[in-house]
Amino acid sequence: MNPQSQSFKRILLTFTAILMLAGACTKRPDDIEFIREMYEQTLYEDYAFLETHCSDSLLSLLASEYEYDGGGYAVWKFRSGMQDGPTNEHAVVSIEETGDGWYTYKAIDMGIPFTKRIKLSHKGGKTVIEALAEGFRRIAPLPSGLDLENLQDCTVPAKFTVDDFRWMGGNLTMTVYSQNLYDAVEISLMQVGDTLVYRSEPGVVERISESGGCLDINGGLDEGGCCLAGYEGGTYIARDWDDHATYTSLGSVQLPLSEDFVIIDCGLDPQDPVDTIRTGQKLYLENLKDSRREFFSLNTRVTVENGLITEINRRWIP
Known about the structure:
alpha+beta, Nuclear Transport Factor 2, Chain: A, 3 domains, about 40% strand
């Protein structure tokens, strides 16, 4: 090999080495290994480590939740938070990437299993812990705020039949329902692995997708999942077929009828005329066709004032 060829080969090898070194320097750190070392080597107990690798917002949160005098960081947020456990076992069980920089790590702390979520980013070649959150959550409809033993002033979805009226006593026995509404913040934080309570049944969230402005959970209604749509007052509503809302039964109550209670009734179609019955309510109800003798939570609202039923309104409710 002539001197020029040898010189060219040395230059090529040097250039290749520089490229490989540059690639090694710019390669994204291994997030999973970072999380594993952070937990198993208890690096989170080292304040210098936290101040190097935690975002300002996370450091502020850890400092605000420190419970002791002198100032510090709530390092227990990285583990189960328990004071004692049955063994000394301290290890990561699994780490799963869940998207948008988030990872879920399952670990054992003093023999106690737990789950945490951690969000990582990379700035200036440094891994930064942006946020830390509890593990999988249980998302349930908001409480109804109703006390069935003391219904005073409210309007409730209800179910009953004509036979549930007791005209001699002047009362109605009905099943009261709550419309299933979810807190919008809770829904915005929902992730795969969380548990969503839908139609009173808890289920694990396996898929989340968006379609037509709605969130389809586990494939939506077509695949046996559910559909959540934005609603009023910072809430989401659970949608059923034909855009009907879903409801949860709260139980049965018997309430007295006001002497001048009103029945507002319409047909199956929203364009049907409305009947307002102010007198002869008993006769009106008893003369209804068989198909109309049952009132459902989907289309019936009962207004209660001072513990008395003052209005029964049956209409088409989307």
